[in-house]
């Protein structure tokens, strides 16, 4: 929030930036997340499209083996499957291609079925392009299946290839053939594991960003709730004091009316009793709000709530901390009610505390309070570090300023000054006629 540009809001604070923005700010991660999200949406809507495409591609690559009766093998030998009927060759091709339809739903079963068919085909001395189905199944097992099953599958693949090259379907260059077959199988496993790790990494990023967003939202909500509770405690003291005065005046007037024999004595007693009942309800509510207060807070509650006359003491403490402060006032601020004075005091206090935390050495602050007919203008400006160097977090101070301003329909502007150097807190409170001292 410290790094956000100056905004003018009515009432509560604007929503904080989400935790996902930190991840999306990186171009490479943003590209990966977008591509993954698009593929996931397409796969969820049409899960059969990708599996069908893989089956069709492997089937098309197997057509040369089915249309030609004599062709060169993959390792320089000549394969002549003429001793087998065409139906058997087609059956082998179908048995290798069709299981790929279930390669993502049952990767282990798919691989072992294809391995069995491939072993039977090699035992008859037949090499087909559809043998690549075993590599696809191995890749799918590495990407979607169990890692334990992948270990058994890798061992079975190495044994099958060695057996096929050496005994079942001898080739012209056995060592070169075995090296090629082992290399392609290793590459299929490596690609599958790489994509699996990347998928887990992206899922972890999304989960982390979601948790950051939830935690930040909860932090802001808890901060706002704590500040509202604090405001309610402080306002209780002010309202309670005013009610006590009203009850005392009503009791005195009732006694005087009774001595004089006037008929207004009973309504005045009812007024006093109603005031005492309201004070009792206030104490009950305050007891709920103060259930978890600490001993330091108990000590603070013993003193009266601060007002504008206490700003001099506050500024003295801030100056003693090393921050030169200039203080200017315009208008009859002493005529403001105690609730408005408390709000002004807390806003100035939070703004100066924020300046002490972030402005840096050699900074100065300027506090200006202006009282008009129905508004109070609070302006706290400092000459501290540039806004971009200040840490941004929705702490208690800024949330407290917005919550207190919302009590009086205030307009709040928080952000860097127009010069780009320093920070500005600008609050305008609407003060109704009833919030003035008599």
TrEMBL record:
Domain DUF7134, first and last residues per copy: 44-199
One GO molecular-function entry: ATP binding
Xref: InterPro entries: DUF7134, HATPase_C_sf, HATPase_dom, Sensor_HK_TwoCompSys, Sig_transdc_His_kin_sub3_dim/P
Alphabetized Pfam families for the sequence: DUF7134, HATPase_c, HisKA_3
Residue ranges of domain Signal transduction histidine kinase subgroup 3 dimerisation and phosphoacceptor in the record: 227-292
Root EC class: transferase
Domain Histidine kinase/HSP90-like ATPase: 340-430
Membrane-spanning parts: 46-63, 84-102, 108-128, 149-169, 175-195
EC code(s) of this entry: 2.7.13.3
Catalytic activity: ATP + protein L-histidine = ADP + protein N-phospho-L-histidine
Alphabetical keyword list: ATP-binding, Kinase, Membrane, Nucleotide-binding, Phosphoprotein, Transferase, Transmembrane, Transmembrane helix, Two-component regulatory system
GO cellular component terms listed in the entry, alphabetical order: membrane
Descriptive protein name: histidine kinase
Species the sequence originates in: Streptomyces griseorubiginosus
């Amino acid at each position: 929030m410290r790094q956000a540009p100056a905004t003018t809001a009515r009432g509560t604070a604007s929503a904080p930036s989400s935790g996902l923005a930190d991840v999306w700010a990186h171009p490479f991660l943003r590209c990966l997340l977008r591509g993954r999200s698009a593929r996931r949406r397409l796969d969820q809507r049409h899960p059969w499209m990708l599996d069908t495409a893989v089956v069709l591609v492997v089937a098309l690559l197997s057509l040369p083996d089915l249309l030609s009766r004599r062709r060169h093998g993959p390792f320089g030998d000549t394969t002549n499957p003429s001793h087998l009927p065409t139906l058997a060759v087609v059956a082998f091709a179908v048995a290798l291609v069709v299981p790929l339809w279930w390669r993502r739903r049952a990767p282990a079963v798919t691989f072992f079925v294809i391995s069995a068919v491939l072993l039977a085909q090699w035992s008859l001395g037949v090499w087909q392009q559809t043998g690549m189905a075993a590599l696809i199944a191995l890749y799918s097992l590495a990407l979607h299946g169990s890692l334990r099953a992948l270990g058994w599958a890798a061992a079975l693949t190495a044994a099958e290839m060695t057996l096929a090259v050496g005994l079942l379907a001898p080739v012209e260059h056995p060592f070169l053939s075995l090296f090629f077959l082992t290399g392609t199988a290793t590459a299929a496993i490596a690609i599958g594991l790489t994509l699996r790790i990347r998928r887990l990494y992206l899922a972890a990023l999304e989960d982390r960003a979601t948790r950051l967003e939830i935690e930040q939202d909860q932090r802001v909500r808890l901060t706002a709730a704590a500040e509202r509770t604090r405001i309610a405690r402080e306002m209780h003291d002010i309202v309670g004091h005013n009610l006590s005065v009203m009850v005392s005046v009503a009791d005195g007037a009732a006694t005087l009316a009774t001595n004089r024999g006037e008929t207004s004595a009973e309504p005045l007693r009812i007024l006093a009793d109603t005031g005492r009942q309201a004070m009792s309800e206030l104490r009950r509510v305050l007891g709920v709000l103060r259930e978890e207060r600490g001993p330091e807070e108990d000590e603070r509650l013993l003193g009266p709530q601060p007002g504008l006359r206490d700003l001099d003491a506050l500024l003295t403490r801030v100056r003693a901390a090393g921050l030169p402060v200039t203080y200017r006032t315009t208008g009859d601020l002493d005529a403001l009610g105690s609730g408005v004075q408390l709000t002004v005091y807390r806003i100035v206090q939070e703004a100066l505390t924020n300046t002490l935390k972030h402005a840096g050495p050699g900074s100065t602050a300027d506090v200006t309070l202006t009282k008009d007919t129905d508004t109070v203008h609070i302006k706290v400006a400092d000459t501290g570090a540039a806004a971009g160097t200040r840490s941004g977090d929705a702490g208690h101070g800024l949330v407290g300023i917005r919550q207190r301003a919302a009590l009086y329909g205030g307009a709040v502007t928080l952000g860097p000054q127009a010069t780009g150097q320093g920070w500005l807190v600008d609050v305008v409170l609407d003060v109704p006629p009833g919030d003035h001292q008599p």
